[in-house]
Amino acid sequence: MSSGTGITDADGHPVAVTITAGGPAPRDPAGPAPAAPEAGSVPPPRIGIRLTPQTGELVWSCTPEAARELAAELLRAAEETENAPAGHPVTVEAGRLRRGDVRDGDRAMTVESARTDGSTVHVTWKSGAGRTWTQAYAADAAIALKRRLPEGR
After folding, report:
1. Which of 70, 69, 19 is nearest to 48 (CA)?
2. 3-class DSSP state for residue 13?
3. Alpha carbon distances (Å) from 66 to 7, 20, 46, 94, 142
4. Cα gap 132→145, rounded to integer Å
5. What are the 10-residue block averages of pLDDT along the chain, 153 residues in total?
6. Can you tell me the distance from the alpha carbon of 145 to that of 92, in angstroms, rounded to the nearest whole number?
7. From CA 140, how far away is CA 95, in angstroms rounded?
8. pLDDT at position 125, please?
9. pLDDT of amino acid 42
10. 9, CA 20 to 30 Å: which among 29, 54, 124, 135?
11. Helix, strand, or coil here: 143?
12. Chain-centre distance of CA 127, in angstroms?
C-alpha cells in the first residue's frame, strides 16, 4: 500500500501506509527500542503496519488473525458506506442501468447485468443474500436507485 490509497489524516492530508508481512514494519533507528523477547520464546508471526502522516509516524503490528478481522471490519464499513441511502434516490431509465447500480428499497438489490432486446431490458439482480433473478422492463421504465457507481467502474 502507498499514499495513493485515499487514506487521509483528520485534516485531509494523504497518509502513506506500508504493510509488511512476517513482522513489524522496519523500525526507525531514532525511535524507541522494541521490548526484548523472553528467553527461549518464539514470537508469533506478525503483520507490520506503518502509517506516515505529516505529523509523524505510527508503527503497529498484529497477528494474521487480527489483520483478517481488521480487513473484514473495513470491508463491512465500506459496503455499509457505499450502500447508505443518498439524500434522495436517483431515477434512471431501465435501458441505462449499469452493473453495480443498487435499487432503492428496503432490501439490497444490485444490478449484475442488463441486456436490451428491442424495447425490453432484461435486468439480472443480485440480492444481499447472493440470490440472482432476472426481470424484464420496458426500456423507458423509471427505476429508482439508492446508489449509482461512477462511469467506467
Report:
1. 19
2. coil
3. 20, 14, 9, 43, 45
4. 18
5. 67 87 60 60 82 86 91 83 67 90 84 93 91 95 80 52
6. 8
7. 6
8. 95
9. 72
10. 29
11. strand
12. 18
Q: Which residues of 15-40 are buried (b: 16+ CB within 10 A; e: fewer)?
A: bbbbeeeeebbeeeeeeeeeeeeeee
- Report residue 97 as a C-alpha cell: 442501468
State which amino acid sits at residue 108: A
Say whether 97 sits in a helix, a strand or coil: coil
Q: With DSSP H G I counted as helix, E B as strand and the rest as coil, what are the percentages for the chain, rounded to 5?
A: 15, 35, 45
Q: Are strands 47-52 and 58-62 parallel, antiparallel or unpaired?
A: antiparallel
Which of 110, 113, 144 has its CA nearest to residue 127? 110
User: For residue 70, which amino acid is it?
Assistant: L
pTM above the 0.90 mark?
no
- The predicted pLDDT at position 26 comes to 52
Q: Which amino acid is at 26?
A: P
User: What pLDDT, on a 0 to 100 scale, did the predictor assign at position 43?
Assistant: 72
Distances from the Cα of 15 to the Cα of 12, 23, 60, 67, angstroms: 9, 21, 15, 19
